[in-house]
Design goal:
- The complex is a heterotetramer.
- By secondary structure, chain B is an all-alpha fold.
- Chain B folds into two domains: 294 residues, no CATH class; 108 residues, no CATH class.
- Chain B is built from 15 helices and no strands.
- In chain D, α5 packs antiparallel against α6, α5 packs antiparallel against α12 and α5 packs antiparallel against α15.
- In chain D, the strands form three sheets. Chain D has a three-stranded antiparallel beta sheet. In chain D, strands 6-7-8 form a three-stranded antiparallel beta sheet.
- Helices cover 46% and strands 12% of the residues of chain D.
- Classes of the chains: A mainly alpha, B mainly alpha, C alpha/beta, D alpha+beta.
Amino acid sequence: MNPAINVGAAPVATPWFFYGLAAAAVISGLLVITRRNAVHSALALIVTLLSVAGLYLMLYAPFVAGVQIIVYAGGIMVLFLFVIMLVNIERVSKERQFNRIWPIGLLASCALLALFLSAFKKGKSLFPDRIIPLPEATNTQGIAAMLYGEAGKMGQYTFTFEIASLLLLVAILGAVIMTKKKI
Amino acid sequence: MIDSFLSYLGSTVPPANAGNQLWVLIYVLIIFAAVSLTVMWLINWVERKALAHFQVRLGPMRVGPHGLLQPFADALKLMLKEDIIPDQADKAVFWFAPVIGLLAAFTVYIVIPFGPSQAVSDMNIGILFMLGVSSLGVLGIVTAGWASNSHYPLMGALRSSAQMVSYEVAMGLAVVSAILMTSLNPSGTGTLSMIGIVEAQQQQGIWFLFKFFPLGLIAFVIFAIAMVAETNRAPFDLPEAESELTAGFHTEYSGLRWSLFMLAEYAAMMAVSSIAVTMWLGGWLRPFPNLMHGPTWDFIFSLFPGLSFVAFAAFAFIGTVRMPKHSYFKIQTVGLGIFGLVLAFIALILLVISIGGYVAQAHATTGPSPTGLLKALATFNEGIGYVYWFLLKVTIFMYLFIWYRATWPRYRFDQLMKIGWKVMLPVSLGALIATAIVGVIVK
Amino acid sequence: MVEKYKKQYGSGLEAQSYLGQNYFTVDRSLIPDFLKLLRDDEQFDYCVDITATHYPKREKQFDVFWILYSFARNERIRVKTQIADGESLPSSFPIWPTADWLEREVFDMFGIKFDGHPCLKRILLPDGWQGFPLRKDYGILQQDKEWVQINLGIESGQ
Amino acid sequence: MNELKDKSLPHEVSPSNLGSSNLDLDTPDKPYLDSNELIINMGPQHPATHGVLRVILKLDGEKVLGTECVIGYLHRGVEKIAENRTYTMFNPYVDRMDYVAAVSNGLGYCQAVEKLLNIEAPPRANYIRVILTELNRLASHQIWLGTHALDIGAMTPLFYTFRDREEILKIFEKYCGARLTTHAFRIGGCQYELYNGFEKDVKNFLSFFPPKMDEYEALLTGNRIWIDRTKNVGMLSAKDAIALGVTGPMLRASGVKWDIRKAIPYANYKDFDFEVPIGQNGDTYDRYLVRMQEMRQSCRIIEQAVNGIPEGPIMAKVPKVIKPPVGEIYHSIEAPKGELGYFIVSDGSTQPYRVRVRPPSFVNLQALDTMVKGQLVADVVAVIGTIDIVLGEVDR
């Protein structure tokens, strides 16, 4: 929340909201990987996703926040829960939670942390002139323009976007074929 | 603080957009109280009475005249009832599940536009927010079913999650086709804002229900079916199918927690009805706002709220007169009479406000804009008109919910899924594509 | 029909009639074959009921009845056989699936065992029940007394 | 279900497939996608099991792999009671078996004892018996319709049927003082002469009831959801039905035109002109239609009977002390639920040596497993409803 980025727009809320949401996201993120009970993990993941949605709102990106809630919290997580509920919880809770390659995991985490730190350090010099500060009223349109284009012109990401949707379609068909024995 | 309170009166944007935090708080409180009360008292009573009369029964008759106080008695009973948490249940999740459902159901009301400025917030992504948050309601049901650690609730939860995820797709597509229609505005851009959608209908001079006939109607019907499924009401009440799963996901719940589920269910019913009204039935707009405009028409339509209450009061008085003349019914007779008087008093106030609004409008056309009381009356008149027409339309939907429940048997799970995926989804997709094509041609 | 079977089975089979209702009294050894014959050759395809009667003073204590009906002939007959206590009968479940519960009930009430029944266990009474209630020598009062003494801790429920 | 239909029964019946409704709870079938099978206990306290039926369901998700009925929760030892009562004293007990069709139970018992005594009830008594029994059939079918529809989720028909059943119960009450367990008949005829205005009451009912039936049908017969929920649900082919000993409307819905009132007429049913409605597919919808048709046919019978009640005595000459000669008799009638039979063994004393009741609900309930295997949980409820059981009769 650098006020300098969003020139002319009032801050959505006080920085305390940011700290609150960030803390919620981090804590529930930790709960996701430490809870033995899979349903608890899933619920914690939902809290993480909602906190992140809140962060998007603070960044004047309501569309992304809305999509985050609909797709992840409302859709995917419900399916997650659906699947998890069919699993025998008692058996799972007796199994080992972490596998043996934790050193590699630790290494990866350290690398990620380093990446974050460098991004944070260099962020100010990297991003300001590349981020287009969009006021809330038009950034949904902005996303649309990038994805679909406007005034007869193809958007910046139209092709990539369509490729992604095609990929998803293929994935769906694959899933159907794999599960259905005869069509 | 008082300045802030007064200065906002008559504002044309919702308080959150005006940055008026005091009014945000007031609105939230009003909406929360009003929704809880309508759900707890009015809808509960109407549903029981209407259902009873469908089924050649009388319904509640004892607590209060014609059972008017029955919902309060029930609420009291539920609050005092022992709150049982099963021994094997996952206690934390069990405790939290109804809260999730309730939160989701009530958060939605933030963006529901009862009028152009009668909403907490006019969000840019209003409809998206609404669909997203209302889809979180299923989490309450799923976690409740799982946390009960019992077979029937688990099956209810499984059914409910599958059902909601499936019907959300058709629902979303139907909504998108209405959103497409907003892009035919004179201004040329569509909107996701709930207020913007209603305004688009006003600007285009047609409810989206009738736009591109029958495309708007198809989308509306799809939504109207999907919203019944989303709220787990008959004939799609499989997650709580009484005769199959005893009570589905809330089998193990009792007392206050159970009543939270009921509250959430009814609040969600009102919320989805509000979406339908906003998207297709012109939201807060009164009938024919463009054809029949002018002070006289405004006045005639502004009499409706007052006249409705006159009708309610008349019903109450007729009931008072027809009450059996027996000492046993004395309290009830007096109570109903007082209730009628209260209604008549409300009717009087509403009529005064509408007349005051007419006078103010007449003043405004002839001389300088009115101030003081007259201005306040005009403002109230306008606001009451908006809220009245909006709630009237929502009421129709609420009544339909009850009607469905009295008439239809319950679908089976596989049939429900088949309808969701094989009928509703293609039809709504087709309607969406057709709407887009027609829209491009028209534009 | 009667003559045919009399010839075939001889003394093991006796055809009688009482108040216009026909019944065969057959020897226990003929039981599965004769019933199967009735179903296959005489079209008695509907087994109305299977039941028994207890005569404690007789040597062969039980009369077991099959009440059969033929849709094609619109005729109802009974088959009756006598067995002693402890003897078992072949199950008629393979002939008429409806015999499943009917035989279970006979077992439940009389303790007559049916060989080849898929799951011969008590049906109306709880699994742990003692004795067979429809036997004539079943002590109702004694049973009742025992139950109240164990479960209610009182001397007698009567 | 299709597998079962193709199987030619009863001659190649395989015991593991048909009739034996005994779950092997310890050895699960092959797991599907490694998901665990669910063993669910439906009842004895469950809103849709019509009393105290307990069905243990083995489920794969929502699909039913097998069922086992656990019955006997309402067992009162009626048959044992009979051995300790005189013939007359036992008469009221039979009303308590199928308590929604008490009159039919009484008719069956009285006629069985009459047969044993070799006496015949006088024609006037027979007419009264027919009228009351058919009224009772209507009442029983109304309860079936209401509860069946409620199980499938339609709440309203329940109240409609109970409203109209009330009129029938009023007639019973006026006739014999009781509404439910009527004990309307006596061995040898009827105890009570018709009250004044009986014919008028019955005729009023006959003009009142058919429009109400149209009302039920308006709610259900053409209802898309009702059809979806009942068509092809709980299929029972004619061969299966016969092999399982299923009788009554269930057998007729499977396409077997067999009604004891026509096949082996009792009372004076052969005097009346009525049809025996049958179904084609043997599914739940056909059973619904058959029962609805039966109700209309019952109205026809009542109409003919009430217009032709002869004068005369209502009791045959029955000895004061009923002491039938040694012998055994089986007599059955077409109760609303199927063939209700009484097998009475007399040893020449005043008490029956053995009374065996052949309960239609009990035998019909056996078909549950065959009918629901491979279907969904919701269908179990529909099928229990369509079998039309009364646990008082199943458990006796």
